[in-house]
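Write out a record, focusing on structure:
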Amino acid sequence: MRVTIGTVRQQLSALAATIVIAAAVVTFVVTRPPEHSGTPAAAAPMTSETIVNLGPAGDVPRRSNHDPLTLGSPDAPVTMVVFEDFRCQYCAHFTRVIQPVLVDRYVDPGVLRIEWRDAPMAGSQSWSAARAGRAAAEQGRFWPFVQTVMEAAPQQGRADLTPESLTTLAQRAGVRDLERFARDTTGSRFDAQIESDLALAKSLFIPPVPAFWINGTPLLGGFELQPYVDVIDGVRAQR
């Protein structure tokens, strides 16, 4: 096999990107506070290792016009891919506190598009909840369902998302056909899509969620508002 200089350079670039992501993940895992600390908002401080510009290596949006798991225009200049687990307390904090501000400031004006990816990493209930999210999306109620589940999440520990509680939450979120919702939640029709999202998360070296990919720049962990604003504004300034 003939190996060219260009091929070697491509391989070295890919290896460098992998090393950079791994370094960010190690920093995140080491500095993140325990899940049961009771302070999900007080996550690790932002450092140069946790914001890494990876360009195309981390730019993973789909930009589909018909994806119900998105907020904002597919033509928005900035795309934030979010990897979340319905039973993650840091994800709940993001949904309750951070996301509404980003929607008002960036999504509604057409600057930012948010794309959800399922990353069920906390056991079978996380998988059931991911299916439930997709079932709600089938009836046009994905984001109200996300908001309802996250609003009901406990301040400490993981939510107990039984089939009964998921149905109750779906009803609160405005899902009308609860029988269909229950069938979709307990079936396997969404499993391939969820597994695809989870495989993508693992390929990007994502450890426990949440994780956010903003035009190729990863934010790994639960932060307060300012780091998101800094990255989004920084990406806008480069365009």
